[in-house]
Amino acid sequence: MLQYRTVPVTPFQQNCSILWCDETREAAVLDPGGDVPRILAAIEELDVAPRLILLTHAHIDHAGGAGRLARELALPIVGPHEGDKFWIDGLVQQAAMFGFPQAEPFMPVRWLKDGDTVAVGRTTLAVRHCPGHTPGHVVFHNAEAKRAFVGDVLFAGSIGRTDFPGGDHQTLIDSIVQRLWPMGEDTVFVPGHGPESTFGDERRHNPYLRGT
Ligand SMILES: [Zn+2]
Ligand SMILES: [Zn+2]
């Protein structure tokens, strides 16, 4: 069964999540945006064995610590979708633009696409491509635990910004309706920022998603 702990990182309080399989204690670090020492301390405290880094998308607050963490722990970086390559290529400029410490450049060993799966120990994450906030944004779904890690696609009471290069409002709404809602009303999602919620609660109460 999939377990996880969320560690908020960076001045943007981005939810880095450590996911692990409770049978093997093999783990994935999802969206290590920064504050790498804090992530390393959580890994040690949880006593899990990190095997890979997962990225939902390549904004600096989600990906800024990926290069350093990959180097320090010799981990492969998996995801996001290739549509975010321009954000990875521009990581240095992103750090300057948002006043982040300098980020180590990296390149994923594997791009993800809709319908892919990623193993964490004996648990499996299903990959859905959810463009709109960024063109290459993906989310990770574990049906057994009824959990989804959705980055900046959807928040409790809000949705992702679409005013960055490559963003598009209607594309984001389509991603939410076509790819998140089918995961089920009782599925709990971990957003990139802020508290968890369920898809059912957002479908009923989120002001940006009325009538979906
Ligand atoms: Zn973002
Ligand atoms: Zn973010």
UniProtKB/TrEMBL annotation:
Cofactor(s), by name: Zn(2+)
Highest rank taxon of the organism: Bacteria
GO molecular function: hydrolase activity; metal ion binding
Keyword Membrane tagged: no
Alphabetized SMART domains for the sequence: Lactamase_B
UniProt xrefs under InterPro entries: MBL_Glyoxalase_II, Metallo-B-lactamas, RibonucZ/Hydroxyglut_hydro
CDD domains named among the record's database cross-references: YcbL-like_MBL-fold
The entry's keywords: Hydrolase, Metal-binding, Zinc
Gene3D superfamilies: Ribonuclease Z/Hydroxyacylglutathione hydrolase-like
Chain ranges of the Metallo-beta-lactamase domain: 13-193
Residue ranges, annotated region (Disordered): 193-212
Name the record gives this protein: Putative hydrolase
